[in-house]
Amino acid sequence: MANPTAAMLVIGDEILSGRTKDKNVGFLAERLTEAAVDLKEVRIVSDDHAEIVAAVRALSARWDHVFTSGGIGPTHDDITADAIADAFDTPIDVREDARALMAMHYDRNGVEMNAARLRMARIPDGADLIDNPVSIAPGFTLRNVHVMAGVPAVFQAMVVSVVPTIKGGQPVISRTLRANRPEGEIAEPLGLVASQHPEVAIGSYPFILNGKFGSNLVFRCADEAALDRAVTAFQTAFPEAVEQ
Amino acid sequence: MANPTAAMLVIGDEILSGRTKDKNVGFLAERLTEAAVDLKEVRIVSDDHAEIVAAVRALSARWDHVFTSGGIGPTHDDITADAIADAFDTPIDVREDARALMAMHYDRNGVEMNAARLRMARIPDGADLIDNPVSIAPGFTLRNVHVMAGVPAVFQAMVVSVVPTIKGGQPVISRTLRANRPEGEIAEPLGLVASQHPEVAIGSYPFILNGKFGSNLVFRCADEAALDRAVTAFQTAFPEAVEQ
Known about the structure:
The structure is a homodimer.
Chain A: E1 5-11, H1 13-16, H2 24-34, E2 38-45, H3 49-62, E3 65-69, H4 80-87, E4 92-94, H5 96-108, H6 115-119, E5 122-124, E6 128-130, E7 139-142, E8 145-148, H7 152-162, E9 173-179, H8 183-196, E10 201-209, E11 212-221, H9 224-237, E12 242-243
Parallel strand pairs in A: 1-2, 1-3, 3-8
Antiparallel strand pairs in A: 4-5, 6-7, 7-8, 9-11, 9-12, 10-11
């Protein structure tokens, strides 16, 4: 059976302007790969209501899960929760359990629960809260969309609590060979191995090290015996390729 | 007049699996911001012909420019050039000037021009070549789509040669204030400043430093006087916010 699929939607003008470098895509990608969920698409859109609504609708209709990052804080440019609600024509309002969680945390820390912070307790009807051990204001899951914060420490904590609740597929095993040769020298035999082992996904990823091109060859398959056969076939052609 | 718009399309299973962390989005985003071109959307898709074709069509129809990264090497999984050609129903074949460039470079370096390397000279009809000073095999521009390599050193060299050929808009000036306070404490006055200065785009970007939340407030506007008015209005409310 095929693995469940996922997409990620990053909401962030600051990423599109280059001011902030995204760290969340790579983190989520690693966790999903471990959980045997196939991340199929990522989109980064601006802090714009219509853009977020359109992207959420497109991605949630197509893939099994959607993970969003960013735009759920207390400031005027935090518009994600409302956009998610609109994407599913769902009402949104302050939710008592979310408000209570935050009020308790703020009380303990001598922080004021003001109107801006109260916005973070606005949750679309029917959503499940996502735990935020870092700064308490929760994320939420509405249908197949998991809505999380953009600050990497908070995003990561939320991902760690959400991903284990998702039913993964069959873990893919991967083996990586490193050839200190440019792709141009290995492309033909590699293509032959790929065509003779269609059940194994083979990717070639060039790198530059000390001014010289080399290639990392990643073999991926759920069936270990098939994987070994493809790796062996390539190593027969290129005995100097070293397993990483 | 509004700035020209752009999108980026990253083609890469290795990014979606988390194996490789993307560095190209941030680099392109910075160069476009400097050139007063607004990056509006980024998509990352898998090494799949139909996915690439669909994304190129959607993005090129919507935005003034599209920049792609990845999938133009010599191996079997390098399918971007053919997908771009198909996206515009354009024939593609080995192009003599691209082949000659590569042959000369390979000759000089004692490298064999084999069938795999020759694939990198396949260029859709009517495209302009993009210079690749790092490893010579060129990128290309077809209509409004700029097709570049995924290896960061090569991608960066190609971006540096393409972006100056694009007519930018009016550079946006930005000023950043840093407040060592969580967003929840500044959200209300900041929202007021934002609503009173609609011509200034104000973003709030939380961070965690030494376990404490702080906020970077980025004010952006093409009109310096308007920008100064908004910054001054916020500094009046929060005199301890420090310009970065």
